Amino acid sequence: MLARRYGLWALVIAIVLVAALPLPDFWITQLNYIALYSLVGLGLVLLTGVAGLTSFGQAAFVGIGAYSTAWLTLNTGLSPWVTLFVGLAITGVSALIVAAITLRMSGHFLPLATIAWGLSLYYLMGNLDALGKYDGLLGIQTLSLFGIDLGQGRGFFLFAWAVVVLAALAILHLLDSRPGRAMRSLRTGTQMAEAMGVNTLRYKIIIFVIAALLASVSGWLFAHFQRSVNPSPFGLKMGIEYLFMTVVGGVGYVWGAITGALLTKLLEDELQVLLPLLFGTSGSYETIVFGIVLVLTLKFLPNGLWSLVEQKLPRPQRLMDWANAPALTERPKPAHGEWVLEVQAIRKQFGGLVAVNDIGFQIKAGQIVGLIGPNGAGKSTTFNLITGVLSLTSGKVVFRGEDISGLRSREIASRGMSRTFQHVKMIPDMTVLENVALGAHLRGHQDVVAAMTRLNRAEERQLLREAQRQLERIGMGAHLHEQAGNLAMGPQRLMEIARALCSDPALLLLDEPAAGLRHKEKQALADVLRQLRSEGMSILLVEHDMDLVMDVCDHLVVMEFGTLLTQGTPLDIQQSPAVRAAYLGTEH
Ligand code: ADP
Ligand code: MG
Predict the structure, then answer these.
(1) Whether 185 contacts 441, CB under 8 Å
(2) Residue 348: strand pairing partners
(3) 51-55, 88-92, 200-204, 268-272 — which is least confidently predicted?
(4) Is 194 domain-assigned?
(5) Using one digit for the tens of pLDDT, what is the confidence trace for 374-411?
(6) How many structural domains is the chain composed of?
(7) Ligand 1 mean position to 94 CA, how many Å?
(8) Residue closest to 19 by CA, chosen among 168, 160, 164, 224
(9) Distance from the CA of 513 to the center of ligand 1, in angstroms?
(10) Are 224 and 63 in contact (CB under 8 A)?
(11) How many angstroms separate the alpha carbon of residue 310 from the centre of ligand 2?
(12) Residue 583: pLDDT band with limits 50, 70, 90
């Protein structure tokens, strides 16, 4: 946080200095372009860096912003301050449509769709008579603010960079918030986020729209700065260049976007002078050099140039200002001994393989039920059926008296069921505390706009306080500010349990929580599980460690080859000849 604030102040001071110094107008013009590129780059940080979505179509959104204001100010006499919002509205609607169509699909479909979008808009701009075809529109007015003409020099410079600073600040605030944590969880796949109650499609669409709106603002500024528009700066080539400069700068960092814009523009200027001298003829040689730079960056600095700076910066600890925040409200819990989960003959077929064959069992409030069986028995699949990650082939799951069969995993999460994963799923570049706070997603309500404007602080304090409380409950209080990716396996698993607890569940599903834990850690885990049970929590536990299972479980369900072998108390199971033959015999 502190480092980010230093960065911001450094940028503000640099901007004021540049405006005050007697720099040649040429450099002011270049810096104005860099501000416009940075705005588009900031959108790509969210889109590509944070959410892992690739778009080559940002230039088209710049075009929409530029052409809307150009046409409207020239033809209707509306003020640019009005046409800005018209442009944003047109951009927002078109981005929503593009997003709604493409973001449901996976893999390479999105980049392809954004290429198609960029191409079609380019030809639309170039062929509409009203937009002056490929000649574009000329004679656009400059911006004025409080009666002061911003012109094309220092006035515009200060204004454009103020917009960049505000946008950067808004994004930094957003990323450090409830919706921001949800957004940062998108890149590692949607399964964990959905299990924490995050509507991942909704956040992808929001990110796509924010990135488009930033591009649109850049286009609005561009039109009034350049005072003319034509299709070429909004074509596919520019769409690729925006992505290129942000990736080189560091697409994972807000400052990477600005670094990328700065370096690309400066390099471009130098190369346009140098290369023709070198080759003796004129031509767009800089494109070739850019291509080489991109390949080298991807090879040697995959996180971009800013990552070099980021490594050097200290990682200051977050100010812990939430000690006095009021506790989050808790859901009403089932009474002791009430049925919490009733699994009725659930079945899952993968093609010809019956991974789960009509399994049924029940869990009472305050019970720890163990689900055991050899590898491949179908335990994880059973978990995924109960939590809605996989769809049932047949059967029924009743949770607290409600039939939840067929519900999506985030809908099930919202009813008070929370889980961990056999293979830990987390956001490695977030702190332990932030990872755990993601578990409280459904207990907060403040969304994107509140986060950007910092109106979410009261709720944020509540969420972070809860995250800290759950981490302390599980004995991880000393690791709050560690980067999650740096944790050893044991603490990672504990962090997942804390994250699940953060959602205030009535039923906790733990998939092999002791795997990779040391003996001491296992004992601590057993204590935690018993403690949770004494507080009335119900737990479904998949576990290979027989000592732990026999130690903490009230009831055991034994699976083999997808079918239910037997169930009963740990003592029954230990004495069952069938279980000895099938399972325990192989364990010892
Ligand atoms: P366990 O957790 O008990 O080790 P799993 O539930 O992971 O077992 O797997 C049960 C069986 O289902 C295995 O034979 C596994 O190969 C198969 N299986 C699991 N997931 C899938 C899937 N998505 N597609 C096809 N087969 C699967
Ligand atoms: Mg498994």
Answers:
(1) no
(2) 356
(3) 268-272
(4) yes
(5) 889 999 999 999 999 999 999 999 999 999 999 999 99
(6) 2
(7) 42
(8) 160
(9) 18
(10) no
(11) 38
(12) low
Residue pair 203/179 in contact (Cβ under 8 Å)? The answer is yes
* C-alpha distances in Å from residue 72, one per residue of 86, 110, 221: 9, 31, 14
- 480 and 433 Cβ atoms separated by less than 8 Å: yes
d(CA 380, CA 359): 13
Per 3-state DSSP, what percentage of the chain is helix, strand, and coil (rounded to 5)? 60, 10, 30
Domain boundary, last residue among 236, 255, 285: 236
Q: Tokens 């911003």, residue?
A: 150
Cβ neighbours of residue 362 under 8 Å, at least 6 residues apart?
Answer: 339, 341, 342, 343
- The answer to whether the CB of 465 is under 6 A from ligand 1 is no
Owner of token pair 């027989």: 546
Where helices occur in 177-316 by DSSP H, the ranges are 178-184, 191-195, 200-226, 236-249, 254-279, 285-300, 306-312
Residue 370 in contact with ligand 1 by CB distance below 6 A:
no
Distance 417 CA to ligand 1 centre (A): 22
Examine the pLDDT at 586 and tell me if it is beyond 60: no
Tell me how far apart the alpha carbons of residues 501 and 537 are, in angstroms, rounded to a whole number.
10
Mean pLDDT of 170-199: 94
Atom of ligand 1 nearest to the CA of 511: 2
- Tell me the residues surrounding ligand 2 (ion) with CB < 5 Å: 379-380, 422
Is residue 463 lining ligand 1, measured as CB closer than 6 Å? no
Residue 390 Cβ < 6 Å to ligand 1:
no
66 near 219, Cβ under 8 Å? yes
Asked whether residue 404 falls in the same domain as residue 547, the answer is yes
pLDDT single digits (tens) 493-510: 999 999 999 999 999 999
Query: Is 375 touching ligand 1 by the criterion CB < 6 Å?
Result: yes
pLDDT level of residue 584 (50, 70, 90 thresholds): low
What ligand 1 atom has the least distance to the C-alpha of 390? 23
**Residue 384 alpha carbon to ligand 2 centre in Å:** 10
Residue 277 falls inside a structural domain: no
Give the residue, by CA position, lying nearest to ligand 1 atom 23. 350
Q: What is the mean pLDDT of the chain?
A: 91
Residue 324 lies in a domain: no
Residue 202's domain comprises: 2-236
Q: Which of 193, 210, 236 is the last residue of a domain?
A: 236
Residue ranges with strand state E in 10-168: 137-138, 144-145, 148-149
Q: Name which residue sits closest to atom 24 of ligand 1, judged by CA.
A: 350
